[in-house]
Every structure is written in C-alpha cells, then in structure tokens.
C-alpha cells in the first residue's frame, strides 16, 4: 500500500512539494524544529543515535533540521517515490549530509528486520495510506526496527476532512492568503484531498499506535487538521 500511495508523488508533484507543503501546513518549520527538539529531549542532548526517517522524500526536512541540532546522529532515509527521493538527495548533498545518511529507495519493509534504530520519524505519510490496515502495517514495520523504549515522531492530518467544514474552509483561506485566486484554491484543495484517508480522530491515532506496539502518544504540535505526537516503542514484541 505504501508503494501504491507513492504513485501520487510523481515528478510534477515532487517539483513543487517544498513550497506547497509550507503553505498547506501552517507552522511547517516550527513542527520540524519541535520534532527535532522532542527527539533530542527523549534521547538526551548530544547523544549518538541512529534515526530512521520513513517517507523522507521531498526536502529531507526532518534530517536537515535534526542534523543541525544533533551532530552525532546518523540517518537512514526511506521513501518509495523516486522523484521525491531525488529531491531529498539534492537537499542532503546541499547541506553536506549525504555522508551521514543512508538512502533507501523503497519501504520500511525493505530494511533488515531487526531492532537497529534509536528513534524514527513518520511525518506527512499516514494520511496518504488507505485504510487502517495499511496505516497499522507501516507503524508495525517501524516498531519492529526500533529498540524498546525508542521514540517515534508521528505527524499527519487527522479528522475526516468533510467532518470539519470550518477547518477545510480555513485551509482554503490559507492558500488565498498566499495570493491564490479562487480557481487555484480549489485546485490546491482538490490535490490535497486526492486519495487522502486521515485517521478520523486523535483517539484513532492513539489506537493505531497502541495496536502497532507503541505506548500512549504525547501531542506536541497542532495546526488545523495536522497533529504531531511522540510515542515510544513499548517493551515486548512489536
């Protein structure tokens, strides 16, 4: 399912991803900065760590931001979309991070099935996966590759879009605020909604994490439909 969802992120969508994501998510920079701070707080400032970044394609923002805060972290970047991974590679090279990052074009399931990582991130991915089974599968795959107690940063849209018409309207206003006309606003909104299947509530996010081998999450960021949480891999088998 992750491979199927990656089909949406073709060369045309990858080309404008960095700009569009910053508009679609008000607080884009702050969310990534806080995600890095949460991981550093959970792991201990200045520690060495191996961090798995699932869905790293695009600007590799998770890695660029975290690497500046923690020089002893090393990263494994995974994404099934070749155009998105090409963009990530370019940003890693620009920031001198290619030597600290292993790049894997594929899914988390393509990695060795062992508890090798001290932390992981899954940012902007879960709401693109159709159905709970696909969402649970990627979370289980991450849990199986994390050491017990290791933190996961999960960030995604949650709540059914149609259930929150005011938030959906505000989303459109966000695009208008950036200079988009009425037709462009509708086109942008349609692209965001294309194939999206966000968890219907914050409780459903917590349930998916629990069912996948994680302890209860702590939310640290919210913006319209978007939420970001830290959850630790629970002891015992994932």
Task: Please describe the topology of this protein.
Blueprint: H1 2-6, H2 11-15, H3 17-24, H4 28-43, E1 49-54, H5 61-69, E2 73-79, H6 82-94, E3 101-105, E4 119-123, H7 131-144, E5 151-157, H8 165-177, H9 182-193, H10 202-211, E6 218-223, E7 226-232
Parallel strand pairs: 1-2, 1-4, 2-3, 4-5
Antiparallel strand pairs: 5-7, 6-7
Helix pairs in contact: 4-5, 8-9
CATH topology, which one?
Answer: Rossmann fold
Note the beta-strand portion: 15-25%
Q: How much is the average pLDDT?
A: 91
Global shape: globular
Strand order of the largest sheet: 3-2-1-4-5-7-6
In summary, what is this structure?
The chain is α/β, with parallel strands linked by helices and 238 residues long.
Explain what you see.
With 238 residues, the chain is an alpha/beta fold. It has one domain (2-232): Vaccinia Virus protein VP39 (Rossmann fold). It has ten helices and seven strands. It has helices at 2-6, 11-15, 17-24, 28-43, 61-69, 82-94, 131-144, 165-177, 182-193, 202-211; strands spanning 49-54, 73-79, 101-105, 119-123, 151-157, 218-223, 226-232. A seven-stranded mixed beta sheet has the order 3-2-1-4-5-7-6, covered by helices on one side. The two termini are 20 Å apart. 40% of the residues are buried.
What distinguishing features does this structure have?
238 residues, Rossmann fold, 7-stranded mixed beta sheet, 10 helices, globular
């Amino acid at each position: 399912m992750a491979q199927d969802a990656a089909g949406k992120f073709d060369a045309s969508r990858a080309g404008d991803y960095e700009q569009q994501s910053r508009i679609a998510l008000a607080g884009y920079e702050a969310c990534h900065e806080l995600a890095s701070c949460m991981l550093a707080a959970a792991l201990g400032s200045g520690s060495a760590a191996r961090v798995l970044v699932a869905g790293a394609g695009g600007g590799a923002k998770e890695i660029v931001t975290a690497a500046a805060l923690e020089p002893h972290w090393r990263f494994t970047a995974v994404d099934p979309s070749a155009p998105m991974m090409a963009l990530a590679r370019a940003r890693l090279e620009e920031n001198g991070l290619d030597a600290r990052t292993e790049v894997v074009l594929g899914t988390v399931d393509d990695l060795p099935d062992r508890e090798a990582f001290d932390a992981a991130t899954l940012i902007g991915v879960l709401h693109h996966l159709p159905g709970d089974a696909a969402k649970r599968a990627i979370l289980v795959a991450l849990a199986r590759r994390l050491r017990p107690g290791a933190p996961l940063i999960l960030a995604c849209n949650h709540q059914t879009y149609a259930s929150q018409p005011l938030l959906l309207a505000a989303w459109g206003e966000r695009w208008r605020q950036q200079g988009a006309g009425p037709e462009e606003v509708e086109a942008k909104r349609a692209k965001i909604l294309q194939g999206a299947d966000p968890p219907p509530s914050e409780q459903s996010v917590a349930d998916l994490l629990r069912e996948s081998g994680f302890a209860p999450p702590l939310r640290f960021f919210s913006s319209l439909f978007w939420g970001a949480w830290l959850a630790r891999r629970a002891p015992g088998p994932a």
